Amino acid sequence: MITAGERYGRHDSGQGRPFNVEFVSANPTGPLHVGHGRQAALGDAIASLLEWTGWQVTREFYYNDAGVQIQNLALSVRARLVERATGRLEIPEGGYHGEYIREIAAAYAAACPDDAEGADLERVRAFAVQALREEQDRDLKALGVRFDVYSLESSLYAGGNVEETVAMLRRGGHTFEEGGATWLRTTDYGDDKDRVMRKSDGTYTYFVPDVAYHVTKWRRGFHHAINVQGADHHSTVVRVRAGLQALGLGIPEGYPEYQLHQMVTVMRGGDEVRISKRAGSYVTVRDLVDDVGRDAVRFFFLMRKADTPLTFDVDLARTQSEENPVYYIQMAHARLCGIFRVGEIDAGTITGDGVDFARLGEESERLLVAALLDFPRTVASAAEAREPQRLVAYLHDTARLTHNWYHRERVLEAPDGLREARLVLARAAQIVLRNGLTILGISAPERM
RNA sequence: GCCCCUGUAGCUCAGAUGGAUAGAGCAGCGGUUUCCUAAACCGUUGGCCGCGUGUUCGAGUCACGCCAGGGGCACCA
Q1: What's the pLDDT tens digit per position in A376-406?
Q2: ipTM of the predicted structure?
Q3: CB proximity A376–strand B (7 Å threshold)
Q4: Domain boundaries, chain A
Q5: Percentages helix, strand, coil for chain A, rounded to the nearest 5?
Q6: Which residues of chain A between 393 and 412 are close to nucleic strand B, CB under 7 A?
Q7: Could you check: is the Cβ of residue A234 within 7 Å of any atom of nucleic acid strand B?
Q8: For residues A26 and A296, what is the distance between their CA atoms, to the nearest angstrom?
Q9: Are strands A264-268 and A271-273 parallel, antiparallel or unpaired?
Q10: I need a labelling partner for A252 at 20 to 30 A (CA). Which of A24, A89, A135, A400 fits?
Q11: The pLDDT of residue A281 is above 60
Q12: SS3 of A446, please?
């Protein structure tokens, strides 16, 4: 434990094989909301857990920048441009009402004075998408989440992947024509009804580029992949997998994995904060980070398993007291640091050599030692199940045992021999708490 | 109607590959402070694990059926 240090808890079950973790993947049609925040925290923690179990992880973000939603975005911005020019506002059907649309329109008008009413819709679209991607990048940065790869739906059309996928599906014999549309017989793969892949107007439904996208993932060597999404996308799971099966490329039935999470509600002052993208009332990821801090945001998003609806209690998250679990865990770590600080001991020099661990006989220290030894198993289990909340629960438990021990037993003032053994225990607990928090993307402060 | 998720202490939730008296936090009650951070700790009250049947030596965990709540069921994404 001591000699492994910051590597304590790692495994090599992944054996360096590539693993693609796709998460957030928000359409560039607005700022990131709390649901994306949960995905960001979950996806990043799962990615980290996989790294700790020996996988070579790529964090990937997929932009749906080619569909109807983007068209609506462009039309919404144009509507605001027209409003600026004429004073008349007509937001189109399915359009976006948020205040940020107005801001994008203002920026567009400033950048492109020759097109103040947005006559060049393609130009408006590109501008708005770019602006919102930058906006989302700032949100992700506030959370401390980084991606290795950004994939664009539009590039799948431009690169011919969509056409190629459709051609392969047709060759595979699982398609048929009806009502002027082309259908994929997804019922051959467990769907409850067949799905349109090419609409009668000649455009493709969303899941076709999705299938094409996953073909590119597979071909890039990612034979292991997981997508973290909201449970409202659960109907896509069967379709995408069905499409991949129908291609006959030898892709396994369960590819890709999905980790779907339930809804997030935000409580503030005892009331639920209503979220309505349409009406423009909005709790963004950045609002939350500004309010309660990055560590608390990440922790609260990770403390429940994905299958459970999450209530984000803003008042609790910003409380700096015993009630707030994230402070409780960080405090346990800071306390241990405090021992070394007060004792003027460099924790890094602790080796455990020549120490008689049999002297750690108190109940509180035996329990703590047992918990620390359990850390690698917890990491492995959380990684295997793709469930970071197991690690959260473990850390809370270990923090409790740490506080308990700290209050019952003295370290610096213990007799010779026992003192050295307890310093090793303090060091080991410090390592485990810090490693655990690091996996979750939460800081481990040395003092608070 | 079909699909997915959930149902465990008063409340919010944990309970890996089935395994011994089912755990935590909060709330409640009772304590602890000349002490490495009281931003804390200790003790204690409180559970037909939604209901039923089945598989098993053994079920909170697996299967099936009910009941209740949430979400999803487009030639939208």
Answers
A1: 989 998 998 999 999 998 998 899 888 888 8
A2: 0.88
A3: no
A4: 325-439
A5: 55, 15, 35
A6: 393, 396-397, 400, 403-404, 406-412
A7: yes
A8: 22
A9: antiparallel
A10: A24
A11: no
A12: coil
Interatomic CA distance for residues A222 and A153, integer angstroms? 18
CA distance A259 to A49: 14
| Phi–psi pair at A234, nearest 5 degrees | -65, -25
CA–CA dist A387, A379 (Å, integer)? 10
Would you state the pLDDT for residue A408? Answer: 82
CA of A380 to C1' of B16 (A): 9
CA A419 to chain centre: 42
List all nucleotides in chain B with at least one atom under 7 A from a protein Cβ: 2-6, 12-16, 24-27, 35-37, 39-42, 70-77
The reported pLDDT for the residue numbered A278 is: 47
- A380 nearest nt, CA–C1': B16
Q: How far apart are CA A185 and CA A177, in angstroms?
A: 10
| Residue A369 in tokens | 């030692």
Yes or no: say if A51 and A139 are a contact pair by the CB < 8 Å rule: no
H/E run at residue A156? helix A153-158
Looking at CATH, the fold of the domain delimited by A325-439 is given as Isoleucyl-tRNA Synthetase; Domain 1 (1.10.730)
Closest CA to A292 of A323, A314, A270, A264: A314
Task: Give which of A130, A41, A17, A124 is closest to A80, Cα–Cα.
Answer: A124
Task: Give the range among A177-181, A273-277, A407-411 with minimum mean pLDDT.
Answer: A273-277
Residue A141 has a CB neighbour count (10 Å cut-off) of 12
